Amino acid sequence: MTTDRPDVTESPFTIDAGRIQIETQAFGYSHSRRDADGILTRDYEIGTTNVRLGLTNFTEVNFVWQPFGIERRTGPAVSERSSGTGNVDIRGKVNLWGNDTFEKPGSTALALLPFVSFPTDRDNGISTSGTDAGLIVPFSLQLTDKFGFGMNAGFVSVRAEQGNRHTKYLASAALSYEWTGVLGSYYEIAAEFGGDDGNAVLLGTGLTYMLDDNTQLDAGINIGVTRASDRGNPFIGISRRF
Fold first, then answer.
1. Is residue 10 included in any domain, yes or no?
2. pLDDT for position 98
């Protein structure tokens, strides 16, 4: 069982044809740095779920939805609260190689992951204001029996509130370690270039724990290292294969 969560870096592996895998962030919290006007933003993310459906032995389709979120903005003479549903994302993943041969040290895997993100409510402060689309290229390398390495590169075309579009570029790298047959950890750096507020860079780490062959628990935290990134983002989640 391989999952796309909990790290930012997507995996290049697809699930088997006819299988369903549900990966859910049960709860996540993030808080920003104060902006130029002294405003601090806190976000609460509840139940964001990625439903992965295996189509063939090397392709799958994903449906990602945030059923509920809360945003609080506080600062000098400002106290605002927004809530509602987030985007609906439709994603596809095509494994180019490595699905069935990623076993020994030195093995590699590569995939293509195109996606489209649709707004559910342009004015609730949780969903984006327009339709976004992009492509991620996930790559993995098995370093040793215990260590694995993953890397992503990609872009997303974003529609701003003013109606114009611009492109953000995505990059990440993650190192994973399998402590036992059921316990693992990861260490990650991820970046987003070309945002309205500048380039966002974060460091992340977390743990995964297999309850059984088809159920995984996870917990982690992301720490922003640039002014454009959130200061902190802890989260917990669960994944289940059927």
1. no
2. 96
